[in-house]
Amino acid sequence: MSVLPALDLGLALLVVGVAAWTIAARNLFASVVGYVAYGLLLAIVWIRLYAPDIALTEAAVGSGVTGVLLVTAGKRLDAIKAAETGAPPGLALRIFVGALAVLVAGALAWVVVTLPTPAPSLAPAAAAAADGPGAGLGNPITAVLMSYRSFDTMLEKVVLILAVLGVWSVGPDKAWGTAPAPLRKAKAEGAMVFLAQLLAPAGALIGVHIFWVGADAPGGAFQGGALLAAMWMVAMMARLTEPPRIDSRILRLALIAGPAVFLVVGLAGLLLAGNFFAFPSAFAKPLILFIEAFMVLSIAVALPMLVAGPPDGSSEP
Amino acid sequence: MSVLIDLFSLAAIGAGVFFFFAGTVGLLRFPDSLSRLHALSKADNLGLGLVVLGLLPRAENPLAAFKLVVVWALVLLSGASTAQLIGRALRRGRK
Amino acid sequence: MSPSILAGLVGAALVGLGLYGLILHPHPLRKLLAFNFIGSGVFLVFGIVARRGAAARFAFDPVPQAMVITGIVVAFAASALAVALILRLAAASGKVTLDPEAWSGPDDGGAK
Description:
The complex is a heterotrimer of chains A (317), B (95) and C (112). Chain A is mainly alpha-helical. Chain A has eleven helices and one strand. Helix content of chain A is 71%, strand content 1%. In chain A, helix 5 packs across helix 6 (140-148) and helix 9 runs parallel beside helix 11 (284-308). Chain A starts with a helix and ends in a 9-residue tail after the last helix. Chain C is mainly α. Chain C is built from four helices and one strand; from the N terminus they run H-H-H-E-H. Chains A and C meet through helix 1, helix 2, helix 3, strand 1 and helix 4 of A and helix 1, helix 2, helix 3 and strand 1 of C. Strand 1 of chain A pairs parallel with strand 1 (95-96) of chain C. Chain B: Pfam families: PhaG_MnhG_YufB. Chain B: The chain crosses the membrane at residues 7-28, 64-86. Chain B: This is Monovalent cation/H(+) antiporter subunit G.
């Protein structure tokens, strides 16, 4: 078994190498492509750390959706034709910042090497959560997300909504209530339409599947929701559908559905099970899946709206 | 029988790895973007297909085997379409 | 060297690289990219804490892992907000920079 350490070392060098290339790349588009490749490599590192759930999230959100966000942003920035950019920094500053970065990285590396043994762990608490309040869930991550740290997970959905509100608020005043600009200006090519028509239904099915198996296997609301979001964005990129108007009632209901249902069930727990966010253990699993279904909906709607950006009024008839 | 299956897996995955290797060499060595694209898409489709073929007999159950084939089909679809899109973008850029 | 220590060192290197790019790149979108490197470096260090905390029938500590998953999504939300701000800044002023010197010209740039 001497192949695995060599593979790990190679993977580590590759990740750091691609990251360095991305930082050093000359133009924006190249660095975004580098970032997407880096995200996929990082997903393999997460697999090696026994974290398939994080690997799925990193590949879908950290690499995929963020990549779309940055490519779209780069294109829109080009369209503005804002010629004036800042000047590159001088050599002295480069050396100083380089030394600072090495210092910080070195300190962090020292911390990593001297982490305490035995390591502190909340795993017993998580095991208790998976056996008790989250009864019936085979995936401990889902048990932790939905039961042991349910308040965090609920608030994280609220953060998503706040971010969407923030993005919408940045748009010009007169455009409020209209739709965001389409994800691509030009009419889509045949190959793109073909891809969207074939991939989007299959991908949506896989997204629902990943959410469903998330109760017992790697997967869950985040990963499934991100996949559904990606499929909606593929359809928008092929111009099969356009971003909805931000004053659409359905859109707004879908956005708040996840945290709202979570909160209502949490408050019901106060009455029925004697504790905020406590689930009656007899039907904890169906209840958790019920909440998660609405969270999937909220994530699948929030991520594309974040990528689409503020309403600009340009798509008004 | 299991030795035969092992040999089959070894041969298929080995061939797949060879195609990935050849494709990567092509990606690095070919002179222009279109031929690099050609090398890459062939490696992806054929290489991954052979790796999946080699893994099929080792799948735990028919569902897992089906998932492997679906993975290959999805990569085929997205790989072919993006190659087409990149190729078209290249041709438009050259005019 | 165990895989988790190695991944932790990768995380440390990513934080260093990200910090360098964040300070030195003049382009705001490149700064955002670099900032995301710092984020994923921190997640990786947190991830090896999860891996080392293996106990009670798990090969990992599920609590930090669950928090990294929420973290990735929140980091994306923050990136999206930053992108919206950068685009609005560029549209309003015609400048793609965060450099204070560029804003202190006599004609006061994009201020309306």
